[in-house]
Amino acid sequence: MFKTVAYADIFDYPLTASEIIRWQIAGDLKVRPIKESAAGAIYPQGGSDLIVKTSRYFHLKGRSHLVALRRRRAQISAAKLRLARRVAGWLKLIPTVRLVAVTGALAMKNADKNDDIDLMVVTSKNRLWLTRLLATILLFPHLRGGRMDSSEVADKLCLNLWLDESALAVPASRRNLYTAHEVAQVKPLINKDGTYQKFIASNSWVTRFLPNSFRLQRSDLNRNSRLQAEKVPPKSHRGRSDLIDWLESFAFRLQLWYMKPKITRERVGPHQAFFHPRPTGQIVMKKYRQRLSRLSRSDLNRNSRLPAEKGSPAGERSDLIGKERGKVLATGVFDILHPEHVKFLKAAKKQGDILLVGVESDTRVSLLKGPGRPINPISRRLINLRRLKIADQVFALPEKFFSPAAHEALIKKIRPDILAVSASTPNQKEKRRIMEKLGGRLKVVLPHNPRVSTSKMLQSIK
Fold first, then answer.
1. What is the pLDDT, as a whole number, of residue 311?
2. What is the pLDDT of residue 305?
3. Are 277 and 259 in contact (CB under 8 A)?
């Protein structure tokens, strides 16, 4: 729940309980174990009071003013949506238009007074640029900047995303939490030949980030008869296709020539065009990581209120509620700390915002390293690591941590973005497979130094 509410907070958007379920971010705490206190604060069972309920909306503590803001923006959005539907009706007149949909803040009914009306248009295969040219002529007085107008005027149209039927999937390089949200919250206004359903099917990757979003969106679509797919009459005049193909190619070259001097971050091609001059996704994800980092630190300060794992020292936990994005996991024995340990931890820390370090249990160390190990019991090894002040949290790994299934269970619970290892870490192939399966990656952050290890130090003492 922390992730989900924290992400919505970037947009000043408190969530209802049903919206928390719909927009739940993968790996976030479930809604079911949420309790509500008399003061209106909610928290996971045994957790901290970082999220507050005002009326029917949940938000971060100290952000109750967002409830009134959301209601005001909903009223503003209603007027903008009426205009958007009117525009969609005009675009419907163009035979090659297959889908017109609202995107961005307006799709969430969270638009402010001076916000543009952002639209996505999907066209017939190989007809994107001819369709865009016709749409530009049709809507020119209402368009912002082609982005054709730089004035600060409310309710300007911004047709900032164009796809044709052959390229409905968002490119792999653009796939992240921000883009998943943008795709999942698209609000269709015109939907011909089931193009919206094809768009969803082509972007099933979204469920890796937002597992519930499409399932609930399909339910909305089934209940709303206005959004059911319209049938398009069979194509005729096939003999003209060569001429139309030439016109499409000409329209592409013409518009590309016009735009080229003005292009900054926009990405255009024959089948897709993304007119987003600002790196909004990067900005949003940076703010998201910052919020999660603050939440995590607040949560870590309350560790004394959290239950200890059975078999671990009091106050230690392996269920790690601070599930941030930009999170790095490192594991090891860390029996007698030496410079290579410090180098490894510092290198791991540089890979993300939060470093979590899992320490092998005494039972496991004895099996891995042999009789007489560990030299230091788990309680002492945890204290030593904390004193380095490199890791954001140190915790004891489960005693039964032998199989790939046990490793996968831990990764599923923590959901790190990166598993940091050294070049000498065993079973890297299996660990990489698990990380990639769960949407993360394994990264070697330190080369092997054969001259330094705890075992060699002990041998030299003998």
1. 37
2. 37
3. no
B/e letters for 190-218, b = 16+ CB within 10 Å, e = fewer, are bbbebbbbbbbeebeebeebbebbbebbe
Per the prediction, the chain carries an average pLDDT of 81
The CA-based angle 201-441-306, given to 5 degrees, is: 100
For residue 230, give the amino acid letter.
E
One domain, residues 251 and 368 = no
Cα 105 to the chain's mean position, in Å? 16
Q: At 35, is the pLDDT very low, low, confident or very high (cuts 50, 70, 90)?
A: very low
Q: Which two tokens stand for residue 309?
A: 């794992």
Quick check: 186 and 200 in contact, CB under 8 A? Answer: no
Q: Tokens standing for 157? A: 């149209």
Q: Indicate if 77 and 21 belong to the same structural domain.
A: no
Answer whether residue 20 is part of any domain.
yes
Residues 78 and 204 in one domain: yes
Given a cut of 90, whether residue 240 has pLDDT beyond it is no
DSSP sequence for 390-408 = --SEEEEPPS---SHHHHH
For residue 404, the model assigns a pLDDT of 86
Residue 445's closest CA among 359, 355, 374, 322? 355
**Digit-coded pLDDT (tens) for 164-179:** 999 999 988 889 999 9
Domains identified in the chain, total number: 3
Q: Are 200 and 217 in contact (CB under 8 A)?
A: yes
- Domain membership of residue 457 as a residue range: 326-461
